[in-house]
Amino acid sequence: MTRPYSMDLRERAIARVLAGESVRAVATALSISAATVVRWSQRYRALGSAAPGKVGGHKPRLLSGELRDWLLERTKTDFTLRGLVAELAERGVKVDYVQVWRFAHAEGLSFKKKRSSRRTVATKGRSTARAMEEISGAA
């Protein structure tokens, strides 16, 4: 990630523009683009400073507080991420699949299909398999 230009360079550019030099002349003299000088000038007029804005940052999580509690309770039964997105939309919460995935990953949630459940389903041309309990005699 690149770093912002130094404040010294910004201040020199703004001082020259305020002194009446053209944007292109300032840009050429300081070896920067004219668009950069224009943006700094606009920033100076709007905020009183050409200081750079915050770079990067942290986006707060949408799925926290009461929503987190609801989701944790909801995920105690079978769920899919797309299903959770749809349920949250019904509750008026606009979230993306990725946000729900990140939530589930951060909370260590996963739903693994049980292999035994597939064995009891009838398939084409075959009879239904017996449950493991019936075969082994375990009750």
Descriptive notes:
- With 139 residues, the protein is an all-alpha fold.
- Among the domains are: 7-47; 66-107.
- It has helices at 7-18, 23-30, 34-47, 66-74, 81-90, 97-107, 115-119, 132-136.
- The protein is elongated.
- It starts with 6 loop residues before the first helix and ends with a helix.
Quickly list its features.
single chain; 139 residues; mainly alpha; 8 helices; 0% strand
Low-confidence stretches: none
Fraction of residues in helix: 40-55%
Mean residue pLDDT? 83
Which term fits the overall shape?
elongated
SSE order: HHHHHHHH
The largest sheet, given as strand count, sense and whether it forms a barrel, is: none
DSSP helix count?
8
| Structural class label | mainly alpha
Report the span from N to C terminus: 62 Å
| Extended strand count | 0
- The percent range for strand residues is under 5%
- Provide the gyration radius in Å: 30 Å
SSE topology:
Elements: H1 7-18, H2 23-30, H3 34-47, H4 66-74, H5 81-90, H6 97-107, H7 115-119, H8 132-136
Helix pairs in contact: 1-2, 1-3, 2-3, 5-6
Summarize, please.
The chain is mostly helical.
